[in-house]
Amino acid sequence: MLSVLLMILKVLGMIVLILLGTILLLILLVLFMPVRYQITLHRKVGEEIPVVVKVKATWLLHVLNAAFSYPEAAFWRVRIFCFTIFRSDKPKETAPKETDQKENVPKENVPKETSQKKAAQTIQNGGIKEGDGQKKAEKKVTVESQKEKTSDRKESVPEKQEDEPEEGGKKNKFFAFLKKLWYVFKNIKYTIIKICDKIKHIVKNIQYYLRILQSDTFHRAWKVCSGQVFSLLKSIFPRRIRGNLLIGTGDPAGTGQILAIYGIIYPLIGNHIDIVPDFERQIVEGDLLIKGKITAFKALKTAWIVYFNKDLRRLIKLFKREAA
Known about the structure:
It contains 7 helices and 8 strands, in the order H-E-E-E-E-E-H-H-H-E-H-E-E-H-H. The chain is α+β, with helices and mostly antiparallel strands. Strand 2 and strand 3 form a beta hairpin.
């Protein structure tokens, strides 16, 4: 009996170890296995499809891959091995529309009683209309009698005499003008005071933020965070760039400026991209291939160091004025 229990515990332990090992292996694969990307651009003047763009990303030796192409197949597609798990152009399933269950009744089957009912209704409506005409005539008579009474009352009321101009009207207008002028000068004074207060407030804020930027806390945070971010960008930057481009702006001066810019960035890109100038035509065509990779561990490491940096947290509080 004891040996059976030990055997069961041994099997359970092995299963737990296998599960933990597979989980650990998956975590390590997600963290350290890079996602490789490839971008291909093609442009040729005169072809049926002048511009072709292809983007492809793979992970774990092409086990998981995603692809996008334009304009041959303008949609995203995600696959695991050979099975498609997502496709952007796949139509969504929609619920069937409810069909109207009303049936059209033919006119021949309409009973004769309906026509008789309509005739009776028209007769009743005619009677109602006649009654309405009599009521309207009575209303008109009452309205006219009321108008005559109001006109008689108006004639009985004596007309008001025109108000004579008040004495000293010019003086009142002059004093009102002086009062308005005083309010204008008073408002100008207040606006000038407000503008001066705002300028003082802005100057104080500028001095406050300049002190923060000149502090040792800012320099330490900038040194750590900028180094981590630039290191992440360097790891994401394409490892391989190949291209052949034919460029012309139609203006020799513009084409010369493009070549000058190419000469400035040449130390960064090296001899991976060949540019052939065309000083006569306005044209852009050629091929471009970009390859690179992204590692999740590098991104998580950078985010961890930046997020838990004490100097950066203190700087955020200072910028929010939450700390002295």
